[in-house]
Amino acid sequence: MSDDDPMNITAGSSGSIDDRKNAAIRYVFFSCAFVTVLTTLGIILVLVQGSIEFFQHVSIVEYLTETEWSPVISPHSYGVLPLVWGTLVITIGSALIAIPVGTATAIYLSEYADPQVRKTVKPTLEILAGIPTIVYGFFALSFITPLIQRFYPETGTFNAAAGAIVVGIMIIPMVSSLSEDAMSAVPDDLRNAAYGLGATKFEVSTSVVVPASLSGVIASYILALSRAIGETMAVTLAAGMHPQITVDPLEPIQTMTAYMVQIGISDVSVGSIGYQSLFAVGLTLFVMTLSMNLLSLWIKSRYREEYQ
Amino acid sequence: MNTNGGGPRTVSKPKVSDDETSSAVAGDERRSGSRVVDPVIESRDLDVYYGDDQALHGIDMDIPERQVTALIGPSGCGKSTFLRSINRMNDLIDIARVEGDLRFHGKNVYDDDVDPVALRRKIGMVFQKPNPFPKSIYDNVAYGLRVQGKDVDVDEQVHTALERAALLDEVEDQLDSSGLDLSGGQQQRLCIARAIAPDPEVILMDEPASALDPVATSKIEDLVEELAESYTVVIVTHNMQQAARISDKTAVFLTGGHLVEFDDTNKIFENPESDRVEDYITGKFG
Ligand SMILES: Nc1ncnc2c1ncn2[C@@H]1O[C@H](COP(=O)(O)OP(=O)(O)OP(=O)(O)O)[C@@H](O)[C@H]1O
Ligand SMILES: [Mg+2]
């Protein structure tokens, strides 16, 4: 085939080698994807299997309605609600901190900050997100709790408030970084339209940029919340291991994750109900975070930024 | 609806008598001779820089009230820059810097005591690319009224603005649906409705029809002529015929950011002073 053939779009003699190379590359990528999917399925399978064994001894109704959780120490009781409560307290408490602060940070970075400031602050925030969570736990124990105790001396070493605060601080970067991405993606055309109508910078931010990026902003909230639900080490250290339904944030609580740590490091024998409860709680947790992530995906696709 | 035929504005405008306004309805008559009207916007020795690059050189221009002033010229000659310096949208561009005077009713808008936000409430803007907010049609038109906190019947203003933008008939039953569901031409008329709803004095339009098909374009052109009955309109266009059709005054910018000629539109198109302008208009360059 001559080089100056204008229709030179058919594969040359080297085509078969390229084909084989392509097939090999394809195979490698496929294997990686396959292993990932397989691992996920395996984890789910293990959770479900262990849970089935657990629910052969404990009724699902008892599990979901009883208000005492004591699967290892008698008198035994298998109501998961105190653990769910503990998780909810941490999640809601941290959301109360992370959503306002994270959103305000995102608005500042996207709308107000000089490009120079944005260039330094954003990576810094992302580094914050990379600190091991156990470090946050120690931070709660050694700084946040003593601080709370200055105002409320009766506060114990482990308390829900410190857990919620530290998790809130932990997930701020997630909210601010993802929300800022969504806000920066809003076209300047829309900002100009609003400025042209005599809107102030604040009005442009709150009544144009935030609504136009709402799906991304809310998705960031949900991802951050599902991170809070799944957060383990920091809450175990900060909030304690005392499953109870209480509205007093200065009391210790136990989250689902903290319970799993407790059982994981204890010496309950494999096959005992205490051991099996690990899987039931794990499955419950998995269902909760999975539904949060699905919700976030749904919001993103349902309210896809329509301005494009 | 409005009773004075001149639109929702009720503020009396001493500079143009009613007779003049109504005679301006007949388009031909309107362009046949220059009316002597006080300028609402005066540009005096206006320089605009982007960083170290000078985009406009010593622009002098008097923009008359309630007429259509067209800005024409080849790409990059500074038409948009001039337009944006009128309502201080250039402030939003970090590297832009303005020197000289740009007077609105005799007051230099670059004086320290001028609030650009307040200025933009008097001088509305329509952009080249239709840019409705991702909100309902109603909320789009009401946006300016709401941020400006105008003490008016929002419902009525929204309907009036849509009607004047020749869009009401097409969207009356779907005011709650998204402005983005409209066609490009409808979106642009929505943007015009949004700009006129708060009842500004001046409307700046940057190639408002360049992204539209001929039918939508002619609708916008009709609209511009009508708007000039109640508003001062400054419009950038690349389309020579469009400028000739709809404007009373024409400013020709040429490359480098110089205003080469500014005069009555028919003078510019029939008998321009400058050879370069003649060349440009007859399509010999640019
Ligand atoms: N935001 C900006 N930053 C830097 N330079 C700019 C900016 N906007 C415009 N310029 C420069 O200023 C000059 C005039 O640009 P302007 O957009 O005003 O031209 P124009 O006449 O509107 O062109 P067009 O007909 O293509 O819209 C050009 O040289 C352009 O490169
Ligand atoms: Mg332009």
TrEMBL record, chain A:
Chief localization: membrane
The keyword Amino-acid biosynthesis is assigned to this record: no
Positions of the ABC transmembrane type-1 domain: 84-296
One of the record's GO molecular function terms: phosphate transmembrane transporter activity
Gene Ontology cellular-component terms listed: plasma membrane
NCBIfam families from the UniProt entry: phosphate_pstC
PANTHER family hit by this protein: PHOSPHATE TRANSPORT SYSTEM PERMEASE, PHOSPHATE TRANSPORT SYSTEM PERMEASE PROTEIN
Family (UniProt): Belongs to the binding-protein-dependent transport system permease family. CysTW subfamily.
Protein name: Phosphate transport system permease protein
Native source species: Natrarchaeobius chitinivorans
Gene: pstC
TrEMBL record, chain B:
GO biological process entries: phosphate ion transmembrane transport
Sorted UniProt keywords: ATP-binding, Cell membrane, Hydrolase, Membrane, Nucleotide-binding, Transport
Molecular function GO labels: ATP binding; ATP hydrolysis activity; phosphate transmembrane transporter activity
GO cellular component, one term: membrane
Cited SMART domains: AAA
Pfam families: ABC_tran
Official protein name in the record: Phosphate ABC transporter ATP-binding protein
Positions of the ABC transporter domain: 41-281
KW Hydrolase (keyword) present: yes
Matches recorded under SUPFAM superfamilies: P-loop containing nucleoside triphosphate hydrolases (SSF52540)
Database matches in InterPro entries: AAA+_ATPase (IPR003593), ABC_transporter-like_ATP-bd (IPR003439), ABC_transporter-like_CS (IPR017871), P-loop_NTPase (IPR027417), PstB-like (IPR005670)
Region named Disordered: 1-37
EC number(s) reported in the record: 3.6.3.27
